[in-house]
Amino acid sequence: MLIGIDLGTTGLKAAAYDPDDGSCLAKASVRLPVQTDSDGRREQIPDDVMDCLVSVFASLREQTGPRWAEVSGLGLAAQGGSTLFVARDGGQPLSPLYLWNDFRCFEHIARIQKKHPPEFWRSFSMRDEPGAGLGRIQWLQEKDPSLFDKQNRYVGAGEFVFHQLTGVWRQDACQALQSGCYDARQQSLSEAPLDLVGLDCSFFSPMRDGHSVEALGKQAAERFGLPAGIPVAGPYNDHEAGYVSVMHLSKRPLQCSLGTAWVGNFVLDNEFGQGSGFQFAVPAPTGKGNLVIQALQTGSLTWDWALEKFVGKDHQEALNSACEIFSERLLPSEDLTCLPWFNRPNPLGKGFGAGSFLGISPTTSNGDFLRSVALGLVFEFARVFDPVHKSGAIDSVVLCGGASRAAYFQKLFAALFAPLPIFIPDSMGTRGSLYAFNPVVAQVQARVLAGGEFQNPEKLKDLQNIYNDLYERLYRADPAGRPFSIESKEVTP
Fold first, then answer.
1. If you compute the radius of gyration of the chain from its CA atoms, what whole number of angstroms results?
2. pTM > 0.90
3. Distance separating alpha carbons of residues 77 and 162, to the nearest angstrom
4. Fold observed for domain 251-420+452-493
5. Fewer CB near the terminus (10 Å): N or C of the chain?
């Protein structure tokens, strides 16, 4: 039996799979507590993460009964860009776990970015800006310089949990890019950016070697009731694991992860020119080329805000009510438009938050506000990936993550990415994290979205044109919003 673990930003999932036929034998999930504040604080307590893993494993053990003794491998995927300081030897946490969306270091990131032109950053990271980890390091050097003792180490959530399981420190490429210590062209750690914050590569974990595994340690085995020495794969970035689990669905899928952040993932090989100032380019899971992890400047944080503001504070009840609202109609009654950049600095001012609405009237209803936010999220995805779509670099769209389960988001994606097929898969990162053990087990099952043509395509196109025009008028000068540019070349069917 194989156990896949998916450690997200706000949730921890795990599932047990039969290694012979890939069937799911049990699954469990818990919500991870996040400490927040109006200043942009987004923290977790590291021990809480491990306690949640114990809880999830206990549920799997109860569900599988005697078969728990058959566990022969663990795979770990985790959200990237988090920051945690630990003791180098024992791995004891010395700070909170600062999540990737903790905004308190944005000012420091901007300062570091101004020290060099985009060409400097792109020369090794294939991005136009520094990894956010450099800004967080500088912020913490001012806030708590004692953390930077040589006996300590800077790690992410995946590294921390992997070390708790195996006693081995190693990290994935996307975590290293977000930390600011990785050369994406050479596929190795780099001290070029670290010189700006007075650190060297020894302060960071070595890179994971492909799909290699490490042995489950004795203490972890006792804690989880598992045999010591079974192999553990990872840590994978959650988007990397997600893509691995869907890459069999078509030749060139675009995996759309609609989670806390909305992200598009696809592989580019040497047939394409490519360009994005904010991509994360990591080695392709198999074969040549790069896996491009392209984050949007928005995500389900924006959607959760809209549900609370326009529907209700109880999240599940708000989701149920949203289904009723969208069953009445998908589109706003008027030309109401929302730019959903809620988790970006205001490009026109000094404050935080770049979200905006256009077309509000005294008769605008909460339902139409909600529809406009949903539409803005999907319009933003389509805007960023339209060049990729038109180039032929993708041949299908795979919708994953919490928001992908909503029929209204599915219908909007299908309309905006037509005529590409839309796949709706089952479990994601929990399967992809098991690729090292069995590529077939790593493959999700998926259905092709079935449905008729969009009922009002003319109105949808008009609203999309308004959205794109509004973006150009307000945020064109902000490089964070540039769509992915791609040079189309002949693609083999």
1. 22
2. yes
3. 10
4. Nucleotidyltransferase; domain 5 (3.30.420)
5. C
